[in-house]
Amino acid sequence: MAVRLGIAALLALGITFGLFYLMQFLISMGNDRGADIKKGQVIEFVRLKRDTATQTRKRELPKKEKPPEPPPPPELQMSQTDAPDANAMAIFAPDLSAGPDLGSGPSLGAPSDSDSVPLVRVPPQYPIRAAERGIEGWVVLSFTITAIGTVENPTVIDAQPKRIFDRAAIRALKKWKYRPRIVDGVATSRVEEVKLSFDLDDV
């Protein structure tokens, strides 16, 4: 047993010394290699001088040619004519000394009689309920045209269908304007009748 331990101790010492020697050898090789690297070749840069100096080229601008002078304007010979005669330019005005003779014309008497003429007619507005139901019809009204041309006393005489379009017809008729009837030069009132139709095609 003691012999084996002695042999193992000797082997361990040998291996340890061998490892130390190997490590020392590797370290020494690394130092020598670094020294060789540091002692590399040195490259020198030398700047050569040129034998000839650079010649600069001078650029000359081209000479501008003068534009040709324009030719002189041609001489215009104007013929001298005689001044126009003032007598030839005279304007003869008609003689207005004698006034127009209006005595023999027709006399301006009183204005003639004329009938009433419509000036403004506002169409009636179609009732919404009748339009929704598709109802059509007409209304006959009697009204008075006053001396100033307005409408008064609109009254429903007949209607088809009854009481559906009456209100819309009366409202529209009140907005109408007339030129009143003239009798002996005086505006007078007059009673007239009118029929208002309500068609869905006109809506």
What name goes with the CATH superfamily of the domain at 117-202? TonB
Radius of gyration: 66 Å
> What is the tally of helical segments?
3
Q: Please report which band the strand proportion falls in: under 5%, 5-15%, 15-25%, 25-35%, 35-45% or over 45%.
A: 15-25%
Helix content: 25-40%
Question: How does this model look, in words?
Answer:
It is a single chain. This protein is of the alpha+beta class. Among the domains are: about 1-35; about 115-200, TolA/TonB C-terminal domain (2-Layer Sandwich), CATH 3.30.2420. Helix content is about 25%, strand content about 20%. The protein is built from three helices and seven strands, in the order αβαββαββββ. It has helices spanning about 1-40, 130-135, 165-175; strands at about 115-120, 135-145, 150-160, 175-180, 180-185, 185-190, 190-200. The strands form three sheets. It has a three-stranded antiparallel sheet with strand order 3-2-7, with helices on one face. A two-stranded antiparallel sheet has the order 1-4. Strands 5-6 form a two-stranded antiparallel sheet. β2 (about 135-145) and β3 (about 150-160) form a beta hairpin. The longest helix is centred in the N-terminal third of the chain and has 37 residues, at about 1-40. The radius of gyration is 66 Å and the shape is elongated. Residues about 85-95 and about 95-110 have low confidence and may be disordered.
